[in-house]
Amino acid sequence: MGLVEVRGIQPTTGWMVIHMYFAGIDIAKKQHEACIIDDQGTTVLTMPVPNTQPGAARFLAAVRKRIGDDPHAVAFCLEATGHYWLSLYCFLTQQGYPVHVINPIQSDAIRNLYIRKSKTDRKDAFILADLLRMNQTEETCMASEVVLKLQTLSRTRFAFVNQVSALKQRAIGVLDRIFPEYASCFSDVFIKTSRELLKNHSTPDEIAALDLHELTRFLESHSRGRLGQGRAERIQELARGTFGIGLAVDAFALELRLILSQIEFIEAQISDLESAIKLAMEELQSQHAPGSLEGEQHHVIETIPGIGTILAAAIIGEIGDIHRFSDARKLVAYAGIDATVRQSGEFTGSRNRMSKRGSPELRRAIWLAAVSARRFNAELSAFYEAKKQQGKHPMVATGAVARRLVHLIHSVWSREQPFDPDYRWSPSGSAD
User: Fold this and answer.
1) Chain centre distance of CA 373
2) Pairing of strands 74-79, 21-26
C-alpha cells in the first residue's frame, strides 16, 4: 500500500512506538465530512471540511496540529462522488499526502458489513477510513493532463450527441402532427436537402403552394443534382393530401424551425469538439505515451478495425493507463459489459444480463466500437453471425462482440503491438 509508519518517542518510557493514521472523507457538494482514525480504529479527529480553499487549509492545519507535519503520517480515502472530490484530491496530493479514491459501489458493499445500518456523513467518513485501515484500497493517481483532456472532450461530445438525438426525436414528433407523410420523401429527414426545405417551408401548405419549377430548382441546388422534378412532384402530392392536423400549425412550424436551428448549432459544436479531440490525440502521440506507435500519428488501438480516432480517444480517456488492469477480464468488468451470474445451490440462471456496473462512458464507447467492428472486422463479423445463428438476439450477440473487442484492446494496447489481421482467437481466450 505504500503507507508510511510514523514513529515517535513515548514520553514515559522512551520506547519507540508505531502510529499509523487513516483519514476518510465523505464527499459532498458544499461541505465534506472528515474522520481520522489510528491503526487500532480509534477516532482521533472528526471535523467538517468546507469545499473551499480556506476550508481545506483549516482542515490541513488541524491535521498537522493533531498528527504532525509529515505528509506521510496519514493516508486519505475519498469516494469518487461526481466531480466534487477532484478539488480536494488535487489539494491533498499537492501537499504530498497519499490519496486513495474508491468507487461508491465498493464503500456501499463495506457499509453493509456493519451491524448498525445507520448512514450519516460522519459514519460514512469513518467507514472510508476503516476501509483504508483494513488495506482494502489502492492508491490513486490522476490521469495525465492529455488523458484528462481526452476524457473531458469525449464526455462533452457524447453529451452533445445525446442532445442532438433528443432534438431530432422532438422534430419528428412535430412532423408527425402536421405532415406525417414527410418522412417518406427522403432517406433521412435530417439530410441537408430536407433540412433546408423545412427551414424555408415548414408547413404542408407552404410546400404545396410552391411553384413546381421553383421547388425542383431548390431540390437540385441543395442535393447537388441528385434530386429533381420527380421528387418535387412527390413531395407536393403528399403535402396536398396530408393527413396532418390543421390546428396551431404556425406554432408547430416555428417550433420545428427553432429545433432545426438548435440541431445545426450543436452539430457545429460537436465538430469543434472533434477537432479538439484530434489535436489532443496528436499531443498524446507526440509525448510517446504507452500505446502510441513510434513515427505514427495514431494510437495503437486505432489499428483495430472499427475503432477510429474519436472512439479511440473516448476509450483512452476512460481507461487512462491500460496497465491498471492486469488482465482483460478486469477491463471487461470495469466497462460493465460482463455478464451477471445468478447461482444458488444447484440452480444456475440461464438468462444472465450485462452488469452495467462499470464506467458508463467507457461502456458506450466500447459498444459503439463493437457495432462498427461487427461490420469491418472480419473475425468479429463472423463471430457475430455465429452468435446469431445460435439463436442469440442481435443485442446479445453485439454484447459478446463487445467483450471480445475489450480483450483485443487489452492485448494490443498492453503489448503495444498493432492489430494483426491474420491473428485468430484461441479457445483459451474466449470472451463470449
Assistant:
1) 19
2) parallel
Q: Strand (E) positions, 190-240?
A: none
Distance CA 181, CA 258 (A): 21
Q: Which three cell numbers stand for residue 53?
A: 480553499
What length does the chain have? 432
**How is 262-317 classified by DSSP, letter by letter?**
HHHHHHHHHHHHHHHHHHHHHHHHHTT-TTBPTT-SSBGGGGSTT--HHHHHHHHH
Residue type, 424: R
Q: How far apart are CA 256 and CA 175, in angstroms?
A: 8
SS3 76: strand
Sign of CA pseudo-dihedral 135, 141, 147, 150: positive
pLDDT digits (tens, 9 = 90+) for 85-140: 889 999 999 999 999 888 765 555 555 555 455 557 788 899 899 888 888 776 55
Enter the DSSP assignment of 177: H
Taking CB atoms within 8 Å and a gap of at least 24, the contacts of 348-353 are none
Q: Which three cell numbers stand for residue 185?
A: 420523401
- In one-letter notation, the amino acid at residue 195 is R
User: What are φ and ψ of residue 17, in 5° steps?
Assistant: -120, 160
